[in-house]
Design brief:
alpha/beta; eight-stranded mixed beta sheet; 11 helices
């Protein structure tokens, strides 16, 4: 039995609608593989891992993995994740969201999770569109790009997930892509074990809803675009307009759950 087959049998639920619902060429399956490989590499106990997901294409990941999982309401995944981490700080809580889930209806929760620095890993799968509900413009759709609700090109400036998370106070902020699988694995592992709130953005192509509307000839073109239009942040020079990847913020402040435990213990000591 190959190593890949062993991982599949150990970490995936085989009674949950396989083959998966992701379209051919979708980057979400690569991110799912990275998540499984990262948990395995870190030797985390499955019973100590909690995957919290919202609604959308990325939300299906919670159904496939054999961990503790919660499939929540659209935009509210981080609120559930926060409650779980506060109730049991020993758990490794990973919150899986799409760009619409994390930055639109869930945007306020992302900001305040970062402000609180709760010890949760936020995995934002950014395919720059609402993929499951028809291809509407999302908060991450680049200005000028086409969608079902912007047939002449989006007039709005998109959110920069990395800059938003940094400004809001997240301890660890990083970005990779589904093309750069090795880099994604490394950053995923760093994000999972880092104290406080961690945000990892994974740029993930959507060939069905985004690619077709924006004149990509095929899936390969979308992955080649990621290859050509991204650069490691440490190699980016002034004037380079490519999307930087890597680690953008790496702080070592205690998470909200740690501060809460310290406060509770100090108050109990006074009794």
């Amino acid at each position: 039995m190959s190593d890949v087959t062993k991982l599949i049998h150990e970490y995936l639920r085989h009674n949950k609608k396989f083959p998966h619902v992701f379209c051919a060429g979708c980057g979400h399956g690569i991110v799912l593989g990275s998540l499984v490989r990262s948990v395995h590499a870190l030797q985390l106990q499955k019973d100590n891992v909690v995957i919290v997901a919202g609604i959308g294409c990325s939300g299906r990941m919670a159904a496939y993995v054999d961990f503790n999982t919660v499939h929540t309401a659209h935009g509210r995944a981080l609120t559930f994740a926060t409650g779980i981490k506060m109730a049991n700080p020993e758990l490794n809580v990973i919150c899986v969201m799409g760009d619409g889930d994390a930055l639109s209806i869930g945007g306020n929760h992302l900001i305040h999770a970062a402000r609180r620095n709760i010890g949760v890993t936020a995995l934002v799968l950014n395919n720059q569109i609402y993929g499951m509900t028809g291809g509407q413009c999302s908060p991450a759709t680049p200005q000028g790009d086409m969608s079902m609700t912007s047939p002449f090109g989006s007039l709005e400036q998109p959110f920069d997930t990395v800059e938003l998370a940094k400004a809001a106070g997240a301890n660890f902020v990083a970005r990779s892509t589904s093309f750069h699988a090795n880099q994604l694995d490394k950053l995923m592992q760093q994000a999972i074990v880092h104290p406080g709130f961690s945000v990892l953005e994974a740029l993930s192509p959507c060939p069905t809803q985004y690619g077709r509307k924006n004149k990509f000839r095929n899936v390969v073109d979308m992955y080649n675009w990621l290859k050509k239009n991204t650069v490691k942040v440490e190699k980016q020079k002034e004037g380079d307009t490519r999307i930087p990847t890597g680690v953008f913020q790496n702080l070592d402040r205690p998470g909200l759950e740690e501060r809460y435990v310290e406060l509770r213990q100090s108050l109990q000591a006074e009794e």
